[in-house]
Amino acid sequence: MSKSAITVTVKLFAAYQEAFKVSELVLEFPNSMPVKAVCDRLIAEHPELSQWRDITRFGINLIFVEPDTLLQDGDEVVLIPPVSGG
């Protein structure tokens, strides 16, 4: 019997970290969700992050992935908005 929900750890950086005031979240999602669903959920909670939706890169377990890559239980997800600075 497969689980109907998965748990992922989300590492937050830059604008995401500033919005949530933490560097990491543990979230539960339905099975077979794409990694972009993580971004959608964070934006639903903090609409000011919507400006980053189309330019955020995604990583799963230290590998850059496409937004439609499916999440697996226990994945570590990284959302990487563009970083300015120098």
TrEMBL record:
Alphabetical list of CDD domains matching this protein: Ubl_MoaD
SUPFAM superfamilies hit by this protein: MoaD/ThiS
Highest taxon in the source lineage: Bacteria
GO cellular component, one term: molybdopterin adenylyltransferase complex
Keywords per UniProt: Nucleotide-binding
Keyword Disulfide bond: no
Entries under Gene3D superfamilies matching the protein: 3.10.20.30
GO BP annotations listed: Mo-molybdopterin cofactor biosynthetic process
GO MF term set: nucleotide binding
Family listed: Belongs to the MoaD family.
The protein's name in its UniProt record: Molybdopterin synthase sulfur carrier subunit
